Amino acid sequence: QSPIRKKMLEAFSKSKGEFVSGQSLADILGCTRTAVWKHIEELRKEGFELEAVRKRGYRIIKTPDKVTDNEIRYGLNTKFLGHTIYYQESIDSTQKKAHHLAYDGCPEGTIVIAEEQTSGRGRLTRPWHSPKFTGIWMSIVLRPKLPPQQAPQFTLIAAVAVVQAIEEVCGLNPEIKWPNDILIKGRKVTGILTELQAESDKINSIIIGIGMNVNAEESDFPEELKKIATSIAIEKGQSVSRARLIQKILEKLENYYQIYLEKGFSPIKWLWEGYAVSIGKNIIARTITGSIEGKALGITDEGVLRIQDENDKIHEVYSADIEF
Ligand code: BT5
Asked: Residues 231, 308: one domain?
């Protein structure tokens, strides 16, 4: 944030919600009233709501709901997850940053979080729309001592954690569409991206990216997403604290991660199936090598989807886009 806007915010905090005249702001900042107005517009872009009244000046009505490291740390109830936080107001992709940090040896449980991503990405380098202050754009680094084949299970563990966090914090009932979509009433509210750094037989780190539309309004989505995406605020009819949701996701994820390390995948699989929408249905799975049509039977202990085609042949699918 620019030093001028920092000074401006100090002046507003001193006034405790009362109006500060344009002239006194100009005096404090040592600039013209036109320049003051420009800085006010910048604050609005940063998520501040300001009231401007002629002859009285400006006052702050609402500060942006931010997800800074302090906001996340305050009230976080985990043993290690989220104890190291990299926060940036704007970033290209939290996933990319987390990869660098993981490579450089950051501690397990490190998270990267930003208010905005300028090139957030989904699977297969698809873009992930991440406008400022409206969502949770977060990447989490874990270091399980496991073979790389088990990595896809982490998408499913994260999905269970996300669904339960949304249920508990927001009172909504999301569903999981294998492998990585969380839906509310058929529209995507969250996407999960699990990537790994590994040697041939062992995982060095797993990077779980979570993108959740929280306080986005209909108008925040570009045309191509309007019909397929939704947000917590749209479904609930009111905005929700992103910091609280993040804390709940981290608490749930840490808990299920520990259960998974102690007891294996089956307790998670059992929970996961309770939230899954596509199981038992006739689906089309589009993979990079082609499409498979048939009945989704369920997932294996590795988190792989089993599909039975019309000739009763069983296919095991590691990653795909599902239509039903
Ligand atoms: C995903 O990919 O759903 C994984 C998304 C992971 C995003 C997180 S945010 C934090 C971290 N940092 C990153 O850079 N990424 C991760 P996939 O299944 O491939 O879905 C991508 C598709 O979802 C796009 O092609 C769009 O159709 C749609 N999409 C894009 N942005 C969306 C949004 N905000 N809400 C709902 N759908 C969206």
From this structure: no
